[in-house]
Amino acid sequence: MTANSDQPATSQIDVDDLTRTAATDELTWLSYVLGQANDDYHGSDAPQMSDAEYDALKRRNMAIEARFPDLKRGDSPSDQVGAAPIDGFGKITHVVRMLSLGNAFTDEDVVEFDRRVRKYLGLEDALAYTAEPKIDGLSLSLRYEGGVLIQAATRGDGAVGEDVTANARMVQDIPQTLKNAPDVLEVRGEVYMSHADFEDLNTRQEARGAKSFANPRNAAAGSLRQLNAEITKDRPLRFFAYASGDLSAPLADTQNAAIERLAALGFSTNPLTQLCDDPEAMIAHYRRIEEQRATLGYDIDGVVYKVNDLGLQRRLGFRSTTPRWAIAHKFPAELAWTTLEAIDIQVGRTGALSPVARLKPVTVGGVVVSNATLHNEDYIKGLDSKGAPIREGRDIWVGDWVQIYRAGDVIPKICDVDLAKRLATAQAYEFPETCPECGSHAVREEGDAVRRCVGGMICPAQAVEKLKHFVSRGGFDIDGLGAKQVEQFHSDAWVKEPADIFTLRDRFGSGLQQLKNREGWGDKSASNLFDAIDDKRRIGLGRLIFALGIRHVGDASANLIANRYGTWSAFEGAMTAAVIGEGDAWETLIDIDGVGAVMAGSLVRAMQEEAERASIDRLVAHLDVQEAVQVTSDSPVAGKTVVFTGSLEKMTRAEAKARAESLGAKVSGSVSAKTDLLVAGPGAGSKAKKAADLGVETIDEDDWLALIGDA
């Protein structure tokens, strides 16, 4: 069942504005939906509704009943605890009912809880409370007589639970016998599964071809409620004790001391349980637990406060479904549903096109969320980067009812979509193939999950970061022009692309007035900057290629490319002529050792993209690009193309390549008709075979060392 299926229109109306007829209809619907949710959670261990949505619907039910008391149904969710025991298990009637807890969602709710307790007791002085993590597991009652475990029962509907005694005996944290315990002792606590054990269990389930569990709570509940106790024995269940029920003699006078007594009897109790003197201390401990939540190794969904004095607990007693002396302070929901109103594209500094969901604002994890990430175009389609379905292949359309996930400081994301609620007005989203910032092509390279703008410097979204790269130490390294100055000049529209750096003197150098009057600048510093810029008009080819900021091209690769082509004209001519994946120009490019198809494709696209190429040409017009330094050598390998393959035993592959290049050789990563020499070590495979087929001379490492005079 979908949580909001057949939801009446009245559910969107403020309770104060409901008519009696509308209220009657909605109470009927709420009774069904919440009853089904209880059965899914407590009966089937397969919740279909989030805790946040369940809590919100239950609060609305109570609000309607408060306004129309005479309309309260006999099967009102307000009077329900858990769900009836399922068939297959014996039934155990609880001597002391196992009730659920009321909920607090804000700090004000906690203060109000304390006020109600003291008002009921007629006390003005502060009260002490215990505060402990609320474990997200399955409630369990253990009955010991004469120190021997005789029965174990789930909460069930609060009055009658399921007999899971045989299964409880399989849980290592549950003692089978006790020493120095009251003759009758009912211990209550929570069965749970740690995160590590949950992952191990799912790994084993998958290896057996069995169904995986959705979360640790479902796994713990499903494992305890097995008709075959041997299955439970194979499951890594744990147990925290937190209270007592039926007793022949008191454990202690206070809740805190009772927990200590349970620990002394051999039960695991939560180490984060703390005694608090007032609501401020309770809330402070709640915050501390909330901060540790992600590192505890097990799931919790709030903090439980209990009046510490057990005598006062007895005086306070119970309402129909909850104790007056305890309350659960729930953590903010991490999941919520809302409408996806639009999808915008943001362009990052590397040109990545990132889809951003614009949402009808919704509170998630205590924060109002109006934007969320959609990762990439495949994610929107319901596919992972390899084309396999995610979300069972459900795609996301603008106008859809979507689920938002947020955890701590993690950027909110859309994690699911409800296709049953897709409106006729919803529209499929077409991911753009051009950059929304500059209009350049947006290309998705093979193996990349992200589509990227190839506009480079002419793309405003990329310009500043690319300019910072351009003037970085490995690039032009202009003295006095760093990241801070680049941001300033770009903000003032003085420098939009690298070519603008080399026209600064012409545009603003006369009198230096516009520059020297800015904070941090004077006549001397301005003049020094212009001189430093002029000094870098003469630049090496490798440095220029790196400074262009072409994706995948690092400084080492840039120098390899420069060494292969020698001059700017040869390089730009080859890139202009290249066709990705075919032809001599392409083969020459990928023949460079260290240049693969991905890098080569990035180079070619950057140099052939009209707008970016125009920006590069404007830059080069202001430069004196130096030829790559060619190693002159009279060695027998100077000018030859050499390929290394297999294992080298007397030097590393990197050392061999560097040595060959120092002697004037061109090192390639693949064998072709242009290869002059193959150096083959042990383990040489396909390259050796191809060299033999092409008639390429092949020698071993010793022959290579002898050839270059290093033997």
Question: What brief labels describe this structure?
Answer:
OB fold (Dihydrolipoamide Acetyltransferase, E2P); five-stranded mixed beta sheet; five-stranded antiparallel beta sheet; alpha+beta; 711 residues; Helix Hairpins; D-amino Acid Aminotransferase, Chain A, domain 1
For the record, the CATH architecture of the domain at 91-330 stands as 2-Layer Sandwich
- What is the helix tally? 26
The rounded distance between the terminal residues' Cα atoms is: 78 Å
Which structural class should the secondary elements be placed in? alpha+beta
**In CATH's first tier, which class of the domain at 91-330 applies?**
Alpha Beta
Shape: elongated
Give the spatial strand order of the biggest sheet: 2-11-10-3-9
CATH topology title of the domain at 91-330 = D-amino Acid Aminotransferase, Chain A, domain 1
**Largest sheet, strands/sense/barrel:** 5 strands, mixed
CATH superfamily of the domain at 91-330: DNA ligase/mRNA capping enzyme
Rounded to the nearest angstrom, the radius of gyration is 36 Å
Uncertain regions: pLDDT < 50 for 5+ in a row?
1-5
Q: Average pLDDT value?
A: 85
Helix-residue proportion: 25-40%
- DSSP strand content: 15-25%
- For the secondary structure, the number of strands is 26
Summed up:
The chain has 26 helices and 26 strands. It is α+β, with helices and mostly antiparallel strands and 711 residues long. Among the domains are: 71 residues, Helix hairpin bin (Helix Hairpins, Orthogonal Bundle); 240 residues, D-amino Acid Aminotransferase, Chain A, domain 1; 94 residues, OB fold (Dihydrolipoamide Acetyltransferase, E2P); 68 residues, 3-Layer(aba) Sandwich (Rossmann fold).
